Records
---
Amino acid sequence: MRNFIFFIRRFFNLILFLALEIVCVILIEHTNTLQGNDIVSSANTVSGIVYKKQSDVVYYFGLRKMNDSLLNENAILRQKIDRINSSVDTLKDSLVHKKIATADTTTHIVKYADYLYRTARVVNNSTNASDNYITINRGSKDGISKNMAVISGTGVVGRVEHVSAHFASILSVLSAKQRISAKLKNGTNGSVIWDEKSPDVLTMVDVQQDVPLKKGDSVFTSNYSLYFPPDILIGTVVKTQALKKNGLQLIYLQSSTNFHNLQYVYVIENKMAGEKKQLEDSSASKK
Amino acid sequence: MNVYLKNILRFCIIILLQVLILNKITLRWWNEPSGFPIFIPYVYPLFILLLPFETPVWALLIMGFLLGVSIDSFMNTAGMHAFATILLAYLRTNVLSALLPRNLSEYAGQQPSIKSMGWMPFLVYSSFLIVLHHLVFFTIELWNFSNIGFLMLKVLASSVTSMLFIIVYLLLFTKQSTSRI
């Protein structure tokens, strides 16, 4: 017995070493089976908390990248929605056309995909001039050209005015020069302009007085616009004012886009705009 | 500062450094499709290397076990790091007494460092133990002896990188005795 205790004291370190190594081997063995995984793993409390804290911190550094990717995904989804909304030209389904399209039944379905969405980040922004311009980090090299429509996630922003190789400046809706064709929920058309007073308030003109309106009604872009896709929110009605001299009413709108903290926008290319404009110009010049 | 407090603090700092920063760095020495192994620099054995000279072996072993298990719990490698670290802790005393001219008990109140040992002995001491640690760890991790060359390449590359990080750590966190005026 004395010899045994002596032996243990003499080789205590070696025995401890071997014991701990055996514990490690058992742990490793346990991991290799499916059930034993949770003895030492990052699912336990302490390391879980540390990793949680870390991801809370690191999360902020990744936000910009995440924003960009979400924005791109949104652009793709918007494009897809547009394609669904406008892929079938229902007018061509009418009786007259069906008679013509006899051999191939698929020809009367025309895929349009009129609008191409591009994402951009706002690098400069003004709201207090009389003509407000927004600068974005996309230019002609990214396919931006003059007169393309610009919207944000919440509503209309403006129209591309100048383009350089890597930047473009947008004349925002907050400009006396800008006039956007708009419609009410019931289809009444009018125009939205800005009266240079507040960057949150737009005005809609050319609406008859007998059109019923409530506070909070939405105003959208119309189907007649050359550049904007239809049904994009411009703003909501705040109050109306009847004009006595011409029987029209003035509608004050709360702009749906917050121009103060604009960060990301979509630039929309209407592929049919050139053809449409050419046709309209030629018919106008013949008069 | 109290030696216990200092080492507890260092324990936490080294684990956090390893887990939160170095584990996110996957290094490769050059980009090739066939793939030079990617690896992570392991700096945490430095905690064992820097414990005071007179620390008894059983304490080293237990601390090695705690350190290894903590790292394991963060990296989901259950026991692999602990295995290698305990081996390193066990051999530390032997390597030190082989390298140092005097008996270990004569260095009371000191810890292994560049200042107390000199550059060359310290680098030999740490690189020997780090290479051993990496060799054992990667052997257990891969557990595949069909491609010894790959294993050796991985061990070599990651020990060199770990040593670089360790030297940087020492240069950053060692108090300079002479202040330049």
Note: Chain A touches chain B at residues 12-13, 16-17, 20-21, 23-28, 30-31, 37, 39-42, 44, 46-47, 50-51, 54 (CB under 8 Å).
---
Amino acid sequence: MLRFALKRVFGAIPTLLVLIALAFFLIKVAPGGPFDTDRRIPPEIEANLQAAYNLDEPLYIQFGLYLGGLLRGDFGPSFQYRDYTVTELIATGFPVSLRLGGFAMLLAFFVGVAVGTIAALKQNSFTDHAAMAVAMTGISIPNFVMAPLLVLLFAVTLKWLPAGGLGDWRNFVLPVIALALPQIAYIARLTRGSMIEVLRADFIRTARAQGLPQRTVIIRHALKPALLPVISYLGPATAAIITGSVVIEQIFGVPGLGRFFIQGALNRDYTLVMGVVVFYGVLIIVFNLIVDLVYGWLDPRVQYQ
Amino acid sequence: MAGSTHACNTSETMNATAETSDIRGRSLSIDVWETLKKNRAAFVATLLLAVRALLVVVAPILNPYAFDATDFDLISVGPSLSTGHLFGTDALGRDLFVRTMYGGRISLMVGLVATAVSLIIGIAWGATAGFIGGRTDNIMMRIVDVLYAMPFMFFVILLMVFFGRSIVLIFVAIGAINWLDMARIVRGQTLSLKEKEFVEAARAGGVSDVKIVLRHIVPNLLGVVVIYVTLTIPQVILVESFLSFLGLGVQEPMTSWGALVNEGAQEMETAPWMLIFPAAFLATTLFCLNFIGDGLRDALDPRDRSN
């Protein structure tokens, strides 16, 4: 197990390097720079600016310096927010995004698994068809369409909940739901499919034959194997929730990391944008790693080689 | 699509998995059509989508309003028959019906072209890796694994911001991030196909490797590829709408469903129709495409034959 874990951890390193290199060089080849202004800057000042941000060094040195900084948790200075480092900006935005994404993920997992399990138990009944039709709708309506519709219904028309901003838990209800809905739908479909398969397995028949009550059969015996595909979907789900939160934060005016990213890109704040991409990329890679390890731990059939 | 599945008729693999106990034998395309017809949801979705596509192409031609014509006497008026603006007008007095149709053209076109891009890259990559095998295969698939973990949406957003918003860039960028699944599936199929007798026969007949891949392997992949194409189209449309929603997709006065939803979201308190109509068109189209993809998977995926 430990060897398997170590191997996976080391296997993730080239992926991380590729991610950082892609982000770094994409931004380097981008036309225009953060210091482009309407007024022409005197060459001496420009040279000083370049030197201050190490932009006068050859590319590979710059890349090396950036990598070195990353190892120390230093994403460099922000070009636009002159008084802040990118690390500080990420530290202010990320907790908000984490709360939003974390709640959305929990909601998606529990509701999705519950709906999927119920649909599987009542396979081909009205409940099943209704649940799956709703799930298909959830998959088909993108969250940036769902979000304004939710605002229109619950904030503008019914006035039950605030339309956005940052305050108490009520401000979080609509963004979390909008972010979670497509994932609820995916997870419900996944759970239903695998649960139907598991319920046909011999060990479930054995459990039933022993006279165990339905609840015990489902929770103690069927749920764990049925959850395996859901667990492996949690990696892509994280990526989807992170990407989705960029637009959800925009719609609901949540001051998280996603808004920094969009604004940073529009302001050509290269270090900030690069920092956010690398940060999110690392997050996704690390989360995938965790999912892999949990999967290996849950499924005894996985070989640790 | 039906035409392309015909290519599979000769394939042993496809028919071996199909239930062809009757002597006459059923071609894959007939098989697919029968199964698809039985799946009423997918069948209705196909019809709806065809109507939708026809509407998007024809309706703007029949409609008297241009997509960029402003009417300052009728700004943000609701849907009504008397003004002739079926879906109302937007904040610049432009006819929303025509704009929704034009947006649909862009969205559907992106769906087709970007999917084609991802298809070409995916098949080329997967078939090459699978056919050559060995170390080349290892390296190529390892690259796919590494790319799989990249947050490509962020890279696409950066591309759009830095290099300007051109429709060609959208096609290529979106297609270029969606080929990984296709490559994996194609590679897996190629691995098993290349051991088949007909490949051996072709090789014995002196056919070059490139021609074996193009003439013998690729046509036999199409059955599986069709499923993933139908599942890729809605994904691709979604990505384009996402970009347009952020203001990074097509540029004014041209529009797409994502851009219209974005405009509608900003005006929804005063002009809810600006949000509701484009949102409904986008959602129902994705809905139909997903249903068709699901139906096709049931009809074509050999693993699901049992049910």
Note: The domain at 31-305 of chain B is CATH 1.10.3720.10 (MetI-like fold).
